[in-house]
Amino acid sequence: MSADYLLADWPAPGNIIAGTTYRDTQLASLGLQDYPCRLRQVHGTDVVVAREYDEAPSADAAVSDSADQPCVIQTADCLPVLFCARDGSRFGAAHAGWRGLAAGVLENAVGALGIPPQDLLVWFGPAISQPSFEVGDDVREAFVNRDRRAMSCFIPNDRGRWQADLYGLARQRLNTLDIGQIYGGGECTFSNQEHYVSYRREPGCGRLYTFVARRN
Predict the structure, then answer these.
(1) 119-142 pLDDT, tens digit each
(2) Could you tell me the domains of the chain?
(3) Angle between the 166-176 and 105-113 helix axes, to the nearest 10 degrees?
(4) Nearest-CA neighbor of 73 among 95, 51, 89?
(5) How far apart are the first and last CA of the chain?
(6) What are the CA-CA distances from residue 47 to residues 10, 111, 157, 191 (Å)?
(7) Does the global pTM surpass 0.90?
């Protein structure tokens, strides 16, 4: 385990570097401080090709096939999702807060990658876990109205609300696309204060960077 970031535990090729920074870690320590594609994340479903833009595009996912164009997103409880072709030829990153996840940001990212499901690897970075993620009926309905199977990812609590499983909801969406090689999903940003920032725990916090890049 790196002192600066959580290494993505997936069977990607050796020239792929991927993971999530720990709190207070700067991308400069990973050699990614000059990454060109900085997104203006809006909890939506748009996907862009990673390249240098005159202005940061409003998008919540990016895909790339270039060693010069890493994909980086920022989160502080939302679910960061990384993608990589088994041969490392294409890769991507998506910011999956509940709104974007419900609306289809993962499906759009997979479509933009154009990789057959059997050749696609997915890694879930640190996000808020189900015991810490209380939501209302509106969030549950956003998922259940689209897919009844999502009911299994919501547990009622004694306050008349729901504990939502972001990891489980994302896994369901990807399984529907016949993607089965999914890794990660065992971290909680809210409960692990030592390593991660959490908006629900400390609203004025910074952000974690989740990244995927290919070395030359």
Answers:
(1) 999 999 999 999 999 999 999 999
(2) 5-128+182-214 (3.60.140.10)
(3) 40
(4) 95
(5) 23
(6) 23, 9, 35, 30
(7) yes
